[in-house]
Structure formats: structure tokens, C-alpha cells
From TrEMBL:
InterPro entries: SBP, Sperm_putr-bd. Keywords: Periplasm, Plasmid, Signal, Transport. One of its GO terms (cellular component) is periplasmic space. It is found in: Periplasm. It comes from Paraburkholderia pallida. GO terms for molecular function: polyamine binding. This is Extracellular solute-binding protein. SUPFAM superfamilies: Periplasmic binding protein-like II (SSF53850). GO terms for biological process: polyamine transport. It comes from the Bacteria. Pfam families: SBP_bac_8 (PF13416).
Length: 298
């Protein structure tokens, strides 16, 4: 079976769990060789990035990936802010002078302290992986400054809200915003949804698969992983969800318009600015969660 059941762990959480496991290999040794062979086509850059926290990529394998960014209703945002709106910057969300104006058409924030505070740290030009409690507090203050203008904290419903014209800006995940864009276009809406990756940089994340060492059916789990990572299924994932697969050899099966979409596959100059979140200490996680609860209660 997969670990954890029915979900795919993002890279930073996977790494935290690996550390809590005291470095013991999750994959049974009997599957190590076939695992190594089956992951041969995985995007080497991603594997190298993950190997910084998972030497030899022994604990998990990337399945898909994406970025955090801003989804906007282009017409509404420009109507409220004008043509000079900073569409290439986190200022569009975190600068109170813009957030105050966008309140009337709806602002949605991911209900995720790690995603939101990391974005705020990047906006503040601080280390997005800072382990300094003062920096986490600064990120909280940045979000608190726009709290009066936030309509909702939402990690799923914002997709339909953005597509349905109920909000005009959302801090969200790339594939979700692209799904909203496609839904609005398919419904022949008069407005356009666009996904923005701020020029200051943004988090990149990976959905991960792993097999626990005590899995009752490890062979079945291995076959499922091999199936999911096949070229055909990997391309279907990207075509259906706008989330890139971690298997680059599948790209010849991806629809040309999806492959050419910079919101799905960021160009090299953008990719270089993407940040992978590192595991947080338990102390920092408690601080982050406590501050997040205060934000939502306000």
C-alpha cells in the first residue's frame, strides 16, 4: 500500500516523517533494486533536489509537482487596480493598498500556514526556510496586515469560486488555478482566469509516493507505483489536471497547448527561482500553527 493511505505526501512533510523515522528505510530491501530501476525516468533535477534530504532517493518517489502562486480574474483585478497593477509580484496580495481595493471582489488564501507564511517571507525578502521565530512572526504580521480584506481561508473551494466569479484573487496551487481557468473558458465566461508566479520566487512542491516497510502488500504497491509512473498514465495526469508529472519521458504524449503553457511548465528562468520548503522543527510548527489560529480567529 501507499503511505499514507489515500493521500500523496508533499516533499517537506515526507522529509519530516523520514526524520521522525530516524532514517530507517521505508522501502523494504527486497524492493530497493526494482524501485531504483522503476524511477529511472524521473526528472533528474527533482530527484537531485529531493536527495538533499533523502540521500539516494530511498524513501520516496515524486509523482507530480507544481507551484504556489496567484490566481486572478484578470478583468476584475485590472478594473480595480488599473493597468499598472503589479501582476508579477507578491505585492498584489500582501501590500495592503492593493488588498484593500481587491476586498470588494473577494480574496482567498490557502488554509495552510506553511504555504502562506512561506509566500509572505518571500514577499518580505526573508529566507523562506528561516528557522528564526522572529521571521515567522514577521510573516504572520504581513498576513495580519491584510487580514481585514481576506474573504476566506480555503484549500479546495477556491477553484470553483475563482471560476464562478465569486472571488477575484487567490493564493493557490498551480494546477487548481489552471483548472479554474479551463472551467471558466469552457463555460464561455466573459472574464479570464490567469495563474501568476511572482517574480520574487515561490514554493515548488512535489507529491510523493512511498511504501512503508510493514506494508502488507508491498508487491502490489510497487506495481501501482510503476503503473502511475508509466508514460501513458503520467501524461494523462498532466493533460487532465494541469499538474506536471515527474516523468519527463511522458511529455511527448502531453497535449501541445499544455506543454507550452508556462503556468504548467515554468520556463528555466522561473524554475531557478522556485524554492523547496525544508522540514520545520516541532517548535516552529507549533508557533506557526498558533499564529495561524490567531489569524483565522480575527
Amino acid at each position: 500500500m501507499l503511505w499514507p493511505p489515500r493521500t500523496m505526501r508533499t516533499a517537506s512533510i515526507m522529509n519530516s516523517c523520514v526524520y521522525r523515522a530516524l532514517g530507517l528505510p521505508i522501502f523494504p530491501s527486497s524492493l530497493r533494486e526494482s524501485y531504483t530501476l522503476s524511477k529511472g525516468s524521473i526528472f533528474c533535477g527533482q530527484a537531485q533536489t529531493l536527495a538533499k534530504d533523502d540521500p539516494g532517493n530511498q524513501y520516496g518517489i515524486p509523482w507530480s509537482w507544481g507551484t504556489d502562486g496567484l490566481g486572478i480574474n484578470v478583468e476584475k483585478v485590472k478594473a480595480l487596480l488599473g493597468d499598472d497593477a503589479p501582476l508579477d509580484s507578491w505585492s498584489l496580495l500582501f501590500d495592503p493598498k492593493y488588498a484593500q481595493k481587491l476586498k470588494s471582489c473577494g480574496i482567498s488564501i490557502l488554509d495552510s500556514p506553511s504555504d502562506t507564511f512561506t509566500a509572505a517571507l518571500i514577499y518580505l525578502k526573508k529566507d523562506p526556510n528561516s528557522d528564526n521565530p522572529a521571521d515567522i512572526q514577521a510573516a504572520y504580521e504581513a498576513v495580519k496586515a491584510i487580514r481585514p480584506y481576506i474573504s476566506q481561508f480555503n484549500s479546495s473551494g477556491y477553484i470553483s469560486d475563482l471560476a464562478g466569479n465569486d472571488i477575484c484573487i487567490a493564493l493557490g496551487w498551480s494546477g487548481d488555478v489552471n483548472s479554474a481557468r479551463i472551467s471558466a473558458a469552457d463555460a464561455h465566461k466573459s472574464y479570464h482566469i490567469k495563474y501568476l508566479i511572482p517574480s520574487e520566487g515561490t514554493p515548488i512542491w512535489f507529491d510523493m509516493m512511498a511504501i512503508p516497510k510493514d506494508a502488507p502488500h508491498p508487491d502490489a504497491a510497487q506495481k501501482f507505483i510503476d503503473f502511475v509512473l508509466s508514460e501513458k498514465e503520467s501524461a494523462a495526469l498532466t493533460n487532465d489536471t494541469s499538474y506536471p508529472s515527474a516523468v519527463p519521458s511522458s511529455r511527448h504524449l502531453v497535449r501541445p497547448e499544455v506543454l507550452a503553457d508556462a503556468a504548467v511548465f515554468p520556463p528555466p528562468e522561473v524554475y531557478r527561482k522556485l524554492v523547496i520548503s525544508k522540514p520545520m522543527t516541532a517548535q516552529l510548527m507549533r508557533l506557526e500553527n498558533r499564529l495561524w489560529a490567531k489569524l483565522k480567529a480575527d
